[in-house]
Amino acid sequence: MGMTRQECAALDEADGLADIRHRFALPEGVIYLDGNSLGPMPRHVPARIRHVVETEWSDGLVRSWNDAGWIEAPRRVSARIARLIGATEDEVAVADSTSVNLFKLLVAAARLRPDRSVLLYARDDFPTDRYIVESAAEVLGLDAVCAGPDPDALIGALDERVAVLALTHVDYRSGALKAMPRFTAAAHAAGALILWDLCHSAGVLDVGLDAAHADFAVGCGYKYLNGGPGAPAFAYVAGRHLGVVRQPLTGWLGHAEPFAFAREFIAAPGIDRLQCGTPPMLSLLALESALEAFDGVDLAAIRFKSRALGDVFIRLFGERLGAHGFTLASPRDGELRGSQVSLAHPRGYAVIQSLIARGIIGDFRPPDILRFGLAPLYVRYTDVFDVVAAMDEIMARGEWNQPRFLSPKTVT
Ligand SMILES: *Cc1c(COP(=O)(O)O)cnc(C)c1O
Asked: Relative to the CA of 220, which ligand 1 atom is closest?
């Protein structure tokens, strides 16, 4: 007999993170499995932003940079994110977007290996990562080389020409998780540096950058960190590189003394040299407030539930969806999977649209991938049950086969 909704309800009952869900303002009747694209809003954010706008900006004006602590906000947010990625707070900068941080860190990393000529990246990585690697290589006069996607091919491509290996920790399509310690050690054995993209890891996995001896990392503020659309991103530089690393976007806020307005650029002694210009304060303070949703939440509990949600999803998929032509596009083994389950189906786009029409929000990635992000802070085991049951019904009734579900929208 297959897994029942009651069994899922019992798992929710026993879930130590169940109460954290109340920290989020999720709309009634919606099951949200797209936190890997835009995290939901924590309940307490609007009050904070109202105060920022109506008091700190409106009344405080420029004085708020000092009086409301705006100028220290990047550091405060860094400290919160550092805990979630296994780093110390002096190794994390919060600034710019993931794409921009990638560029800054790729150049910074390559400059630490001046005798090498290759920036290596994985074949199936997220397009922005590929575009930025190619552009950084062009600017530096290096070669961008891709390898993989399988781990042995990637590791096999590490030779004495490789300056930097840039890798996404969790594949955005399949949810496959790359072993951070293994790849990091392999890069170092070849004399290269490694840069991890944590966009689909931060906030849902027990990321351990320091423990893995990683060199650099970037990640998103608006996905599983729930910082709001376009929230600032983060950049990590291992402590051992901080004194020597030179990033290319030497804006005034990365200066050792920005308010000395000196003629010559002297980089800030520590992680602040990763800053470029004035932070987007409304977004940054929304991110700071949103990160309070993680207060008191243990990373091991997050990882445990992220795996368990995926295991339940995959079990239900096996019991109910195989007959409808879905195949599993994620690793079955929880050790090898991030916090997402992806299925493949030739009608994937229409199936996702019919789910959305029922208030179940996942997303679609070409050519045929249905993605379901399983964020442990607010996704329930019964949500997973309900999604699979809905897909079973949608397929059995042919509900996906309607003109309104067949034509692509601008943002998928
Ligand atoms: C979402 C995502 C990005 C996004 O970059 P932005 O600069 O924030 O648009 C980059 N890399 C990966 C792997 C992502 O998943």
From this structure: 8
Cα torsion through 224, 132, 139, 218, rounded to 10: 20
197 is catalytic: yes
Task: Tell me, yes or no, if 178 is annotated catalytic.
Answer: no
Q: Which residues contact 172 (CB under 8 A, 6 or more apart)?
A: 36, 126, 199, 200, 365, 371
Overall fold of domain 5-17+297-406: Aspartate Aminotransferase, domain 1 (3.90.1150)
| pLDDT above 80: residue 409 | no
Find the 200 Cα to ligand 1 centroid distance in Å: 9
Q: For residues 365 and 345, what is the distance between their CA atoms, to the nearest angstrom? A: 11
What kind of fold does domain 47-294 have according to CATH? Answer: Aspartate Aminotransferase; domain 2 (3.40.640)
Q: What is the pLDDT of residues 163-183, one digit of tens each?
A: 999 999 999 999 999 999 999
pLDDT level of residue 84 (50, 70, 90 thresholds):
very high
Residues having CB within 6 Å of any atom of ligand 1? 97-99, 126, 128-129, 168, 172, 197, 199-200, 220, 233
